[in-house]
Every structure is written in C-alpha cells, then in structure tokens.
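[Meeting: bench + compute handoff]

Bench side (C.D.) handed over the final construct sequence. Compute side (W.E.) agreed to return the predicted structure before the next meeting so the bench team could plan truncations. Sequence as handed over:
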Amino acid sequence: MGQDLSQFKALRDGIRDNDEDLLEIDLTGKNVGDSKAVKLAQALRHNDVAEKLILKECDISHVGITHLCDTLCSVLITTNIRVLVLDNNPKIGSEGGRLIGDMLKNNSHLEELSLNACGLGDLGLVGIAFALHDNLSLTLLELGSNGLKDEAAEHIAAMLKENTKLEGLSLFQNLIT
C-alpha cells in the first residue's frame, strides 16, 4: 500500500510537471478511487502533454468523475487528453453519465471515449446523447454493457441524425431490442 501511494505521488508530480514521457497515463486496475481521482484531476490542470488517460477498473464513482470532468471541460485549462477510457467503473452510474455529458458540451479535444460497463443506464446516456448533438471532436464512443434499453437507443438514433463527426459507436451487451 505504501509503495502504491508513493508511486501514485510520483506519477501525480510527473503529470503536474508536464513530464514528456507521460503521453499515456494508464492506471488500469489500480485502486485509484475517488480521492486519488480528485488529485489526478488537479495534476492534469497543469498538464498539456498527456494525450491518453486510461482509468479502467479503478473504483471511480460519480464523485471522482465530477473532478475529472471539471478539468476536461474548463475553458481556463488546456488539456490535450484526446482519449479517455473509463471502462469497468460501475459506480460512475447515471449521475456520472450526466456529468460526462456536461463535459462533452464544452470539450473540443476529446476524440475517443470508452465507457463500457460503467453502470450508465438509460438516464446516464441521455446527457451524453444530448451533448453529442453538437460535439464536433468525438469520433469514437464505446457504451457496451451499460444496461441500455430502447429509450437509450432512441436518444442515440436522434443524436446520430445530427452528429456528423462520430465514426464509431459500440453498444455491445446492452438490452436494446
């Protein structure tokens, strides 16, 4: 545990200091949780180097997502995160989906977003779908295993009629008929 904490602090410091070797930040399977997600978001506010942030299976909920989204959508902060992977964080839930949707309304850099198995449900997807009506940067969206039903599919279909930038959409293992 102590070694993990010191490694996280070193990584956080490298992110904050714009370490050129940190183009990709991959914390897959690490016990990031919400408290470290907040610290990570704070460090990213000072970073314009990292392009890919992978937080798969990191035990992050909508609380940690709040801070990450604030960083990624702030007009006062320039981040170069182009790829965000949040797969297998089921505590993100519908509230986190709403927050991610709000972030997508104001983010013009993010190109790929993976939210497989994040517990979004139909409610969480609605905010994301509405945001993507006008988003011109996202080209790939993965939403597999989120318990999405026909209501979500209707919102996705409406978004796809207006969004000309999205090139890839994954909806595997959902409940759409």
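W.E. noted at the follow-up: The first strand starts at residue 24 and ends at 26. C.D. will use this when planning the next construct.
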